Amino acid sequence: MTLPLLLSLRVAALSALIAAIFGIALAFLLANKQGVLWHLLDGLIHLPMVLPPTVLGYYLLIALSQRSPLGAWLSNLGIHLTFTWQGAVVAASVVALPLVTQSARAAIESIPADLLHVASTLGRAPFAIFLTITLPLAWRGVLAGVVMAFARALGEFGATLMIAGNIPGRTQTLPIAIYDAVQAGEAARANQLSLLLTGAAIVLLVSIRLLTNRIASRPQRS
Amino acid sequence: MLSLGAIDMIRRKQKSLSAITQRLEVSLSRRAKISSSVARYWLVFVLLFLWAPMLVACQTASERQELTIAAAASLNTTFSEIGDAFTKESGIPVTFSFAATGTLSEQIRNGAPFDIFAAADTAHITNLFVEGYIIPESRAVFAHGLVSLVIAPDSGLQLKSLNDLKNIAVERFTIANPKIAPYGAAAQTIVENAGLWTQIEEHLVFGESVRQSLQYIDSGEIPAGIIPNSLLLDSPLIIIPIDSALYDPVEHGIGIIADSHHTAEAEQFLNFLFSPQGQAILANHGLIPVADP
After folding, report:
1. Is the CB of B107 inside 8 Å of chain A's CB atoms?
2. What are the CB-based long-range contacts (under 8 Å, 24+) for A194-198?
3. For domain B67-144+250-289, which architecture applies?
């Protein structure tokens, strides 16, 4: 019973980290760039929120399967992303990415432009401004996004089942273990695992609420 | 958290407010301090909780002596018991992934790391063998399976045989998806051969595998369906045998996956499956063994 939980936590933590790295960078770019191509990128990032998990899982399976050029190339490097827990991380990261991007972008856009201009006129390089001014001022929004991404990754099911399958101890995350228990008619196990996941979700949602409340109630000081 | 907003409001009006309000502010900010430190501890706790599993060493599975077996959903309880018995005898841990035969077969094509594939037909095993995913000499038939008409006891359905469906209307009827589940295909053949297809077709609900179809009936969501006998051991459902003239018993094929790193252990498992002990477990679960135990 602890095995699926540990695997789920590991997958969700790594996915949240990956989504955070890419999500923050993308949020920064999207907040500062204009143009059709950036809108297109914005749309692409948000696709996993709209597409059914089956379509997403199918795309990932086609892209990463050893029968595809990319999958074969990765396989030669010794990286197997289908039916491994790392594959589950890929699926969960893709699904979690828009949550980080959205939340971080809103936080970044709420920073008064004057501050950034002042830093710029004082001779700070753009990346230094990002690290020393943008991020410190936007960190609550960013963190809320990352925690949300973690929660979403923890509950990821559809795409994960398609790309990672249902192998106990290796790719059987908590949601997939619940699905398996229900299918096998093991009601007690299904109940236990569901309660466990619900508990974890409540802890995470309370954290998000704490973080976002603080953003709402304490305006950025300038 | 509301108190923070309150403080800000108070601060804005501070100049025009009396000493009483200032005292209120002091008490409010004290509360804010407490709740902000609670929030901080909470966040630290949550962050630790998130990252704790990363500290647990990630074990690499391929080095250890173990077996991962893809098995048709109909073999769920049967193979779980065989796996336990095998582990007890050999000391080799076995992990099962149960799903419809077609689903597992497609997973194997996409590189799923299984050592053995136990199917609910021979066609999928043969196709995989032709495509090079199965070790040729490992292929075998290890059992045959029959199906039954199954009725939820609280559904109130008064069926004595499959033919009664000609006169008694069922709201919904479940079989496994015939495209991916051989037992679903067998169920479809039975319904067709019994001359019931046109009548039942619009009431059909496909399970993703026979396990799901059984779960639909078990939960009382669907009153009746056709389910493999191997899933009906100790079942509280009403079980009605189906005339064997209506279909051929389902052939359970098995094979070792070509990419397996555990072929020696896999052969050991196959030997156990065909041993009197293994075949006896199959028979206990309602399957027809190939070897006389």
Report:
1. yes
2. A196/A1, A196/A5, A197/A8, A197/A154, A197/A155
3. 3-Layer(aba) Sandwich (3.40)
